[in-house]
Predict the structure.
Amino acid sequence: MLLGDLLARLHDATIAEQTLASLNDLILAATVSQRAVAAGVPLGTFAAEQVESYADGADDSEWTTVMGLMARADDPGAVLLRRALNHSGGAAASGCSCGGKHA
């Protein structure tokens, strides 16, 4: 699957939420759930916004790293989502659900 296709799929809130559940990472899921509640948006929407924010804001070094990880993974979408959720910060981490657009 091409990177653009992966990003488009994870932009769908339902797919982002399903992918988060498939990670089997209860700590990450709980943290993201708390952040979604604080932002006042559904969990899938919040996760999708974090992927979009990551795609818009990751620097070249981060993209090199994530592309290498995705190339070796059975589920590149899960790698991308996990990386985006762990990498997100700033406005998104403080509860804003704009995806970092006003920062």
